[in-house]
Amino acid sequence: MATALRFNNAALRPVLSSVRSPAKTIAFNGLRCYSSAKTQTLKESLAEKLPGEIEKIKKLRNGYGSKVVGEVTLDQVYGGARGIKSLVWEGSVLDSEEGIRFRGKTIPECQKLLPKAPGGEEPLPEGLFWLLLTGEVPSEQQVRELSAEWAARSDVPKFIEELIDRCPNDLHPMAQFSLAVTALEHESAFAKAYAKGMPKSEYWSHTFEDSMDLIAKLPTIAARIYRNVYKDGKVPAVQKDKDYAYNFANQLGFSENKDFIELMRLYLTIHTDHEGGNVSAHTTHLVGSALSSPMLSLSAGLNGLAGPLHGLANQEVLNWLQKMKKQIGSDLGDKAITDYLWSTLKSGQVVPGYGHAVLRKTDPRYVSQREFALRHLPDDPMFKLVSQVYKIAPGVLTEHGKTKNPFPNVDAHSGVLLQYYGLTEASFYTVLFGVSRAIGVLPQLIIDRAVGAPIERPKSFSTEAWAKLVGATL
């Protein structure tokens, strides 16, 4: 590890010298970005920070590498590695009481500090990507230029369009999305450079280029799937002077509704990242640790996100709420909601959207969506139902006694907001989540390559070996 870090440090000097040169021109797969002393590009900002970050990790390991940071119980081993401290994830940390912090900043702080679109109220996901990658809040100009760069990189290869168009409409949108992302491996700068032979010091740069291209293309890919499966198959072109979320909303067919565009900005921002241990983040990291390209790594993460215990949960919440509404009708009284909650629990089901592996309070991502709804759709019947469930469910779940966290998570709210604005196709919701999650997991992949993170390879034991280890007789 130390050798790799020294090597990376030295190899960054040519990159840093180009950062300090105001007139330097950098090529990005055909797009030429002219940097200046006034406004650094994202890649320049990252390159400038990397030597210090590499040195920080080296110093930490050299001084404290043998220090024990936790213990593992047998329950954790058989409980899905729940709570085991074993991953490095720079972008976010999840506190059980406080919720998520992106590079030390809460969601309300991000909403206040990150740049917005002209006249907009919600932060732009471009700004959060910058924050996750560098730890710094970008300027408005830097975010505008990043928006322009993503728009310039957004063209999808013709064979990917044809691949999507050939998919049967009854193939789940998430499967189509993963398929298209996997096929983008054909365009991977990292895979091509690795095949030719490149020094480790260049890994992060090619990973950065792939990640930028991938994020830029995801909305167009997702929109093509949406328009093929549910609409007329026609996808509007990316508007090069607009931000990422605006273009995504426009390609989906919702550009006429300014509030929906703001919702997309919020949605894409708050769904990006939630520590490194969740399935989609960890899977992307794990596959990436084998030096798979960002395309293959993200596709693996998307396949995990598609599961009902992860990203599919928001669809399940909406289905549950709709069934409740159908049964209780307009009666949103406390008794009607309480009775329905108990009927769900007594049938052996969980209340979807409530509880979390780490959180022990209401998810701040839920709160941010609730505040959006209070501003924009306070009288919507489904929002009123969500509010009533929020009022009553924690007490019922506490009385039930089998839920460690009786409060709502992000999934308890997002589907109702999307449905209100006309995006009613719940089977597509996980694809929206996937577009957002890419913005959160790919920065860590870039950082992993920059600091020379090794392949992940934990030790496993059989049940008999574990029994012997703890002195048990089976």
From TrEMBL:
Molecular function terms, GO-annotated: 2-methylcitrate synthase activity; citrate synthase activity
SUPFAM superfamilies membership: Citrate synthase
Signal peptide: none
One Pfam family per UniProt: Citrate_synt
Name by which UniProt lists this protein: Citrate synthase
Family: Belongs to the citrate synthase family.
Reaction catalysed by this enzyme: oxaloacetate + acetyl-CoA + H2O = citrate + CoA + H(+); propanoyl-CoA + oxaloacetate + H2O = (2S,3S)-2-methylcitrate + CoA + H(+)
Annotated source species: Alectoria fallacina
High-level lineage: Eukaryota, Fungi, Dikarya, Ascomycota, Pezizomycotina
